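Database export, one record per block. Field names are fixed; values are copied verbatim from the stored entry.
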Amino acid sequence: METYAYFRFPEQSKATLIAQNNGPVATLRSASELDGRSGFVFAPFAPSDTLPIILIRPDTCKSVSINEQPPASGKATIAPLTSKENELGAYTADFNRFHHQIENGDLSKIVLARVSTLVSSAKVSPYTLFCRACNMYPHLFVALVSTPQTGTWIVATPELLLSATEKECETMALAGTMKAADYKNGSGWTEKEYQEQKFVSLYINSVISQIADNITEDGPETITAADLVHLRTKFSFTIKDGQNVSDALAALHPTPAVCGLPKNNAMDFILKSEHSPRKYYSGFLGPWAVKQSTSLYVSLRCMHINDRIFDLYAGGGLLKQSTLSKEWEETEAKLNTMKNILYV
C-alpha cells in the first residue's frame, strides 16, 4: 500500500499531495515526539501500540488539481451492511450506559460515537471520493490519507484543532449541532447546545492559559458545515517561551467536543464501553511543520475504506438533558456528510 495524503483547506480551489516515497512511515506514541519533525500527521483518538500517531514524510509535496475521474465500470450500488434496527439497538445500549454516567454525577459531559457500515457492489476510487467531498464541501477541510498502518480514510471536517506559525496559534471550540434546514426554519439554539459550547470553550481557555499569553476569544457564532450548523468560538494565542507547539497540541487533544469532562474519566469510559472502537475517528490530522506552518483538524465526518466496505463514523455530546431520539437523529445527520459522497 502506498503512503500518501491528499488534503484541501477550506475555501481553496486546489489540493496538496504529501507522499512518502520509500521506507517505513514514522509511528509515534505521543504529540511530544513530533518536535523537530515535518510531514502529514494522522492521529487516533487514543494513541497506542496498535493505533499509533502516523507521520508521513514529505518526500513529495506538491499542489494538485481536483479532478474527479468517472468510474471505469459504471455506477456502483451502495447498501447498508447491517440493518438500521441493529444499529439503533447497539446505539441505545451505549446511550443508556453513557448517559447513566452523567445522571449519577461521575461525568458532566461525554461524547458517544457510532459506526455505520456500507458495502458497494464495485470498487470506488478513494481519490474520486476525495474529489467529490472537495466539490460538495468547499467550506470544510477535506483529506484522503492512506498508509499500511492505518488503511485508507477520508475526512471532511469543520473543526480546526490547532494552526500555528512559529508561536502564533489558533484553535476553536466547536460544539452544538443542528440541521441547517431546521435552523433556517426558525429553530433556535437550546440551553443544551449553549451549555455544550460553554463546556468546550472553558476547557480550551483553561488549558491554553497554562502555556500561552495574549489569548483572545471570539464567539460563539453560528457556522454552516455541509447540511449542519454548529456553534463556534475562536481562540488565538501566543505560546510562552519554553513551550512548544506540541505542548499546545498535547494540552488540547482530545477536547470535550470529542471526549467529555472530566477528560481523563470520560476517555477511560469511552475506551472501555463504546460499542465500536473509534480508531482514527475523533483524532486529528493535517500538515505538521510543513513550510514552517502547522494546520491540524479534528477527524470528524470521516470513513474508513476497506476495498468495497465503508465504515462511517459520527458522534455527539451527551449532557444531562440529552434524549436518545435527538442524539440518534444528530448522528444520522452527521453520517450524511460521508453518505452524500457515496450515494452519487
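Remark 1: The first strand starts at residue 3 and ends at 8.
Remark 2: The mean pLDDT is 94.
End of record.
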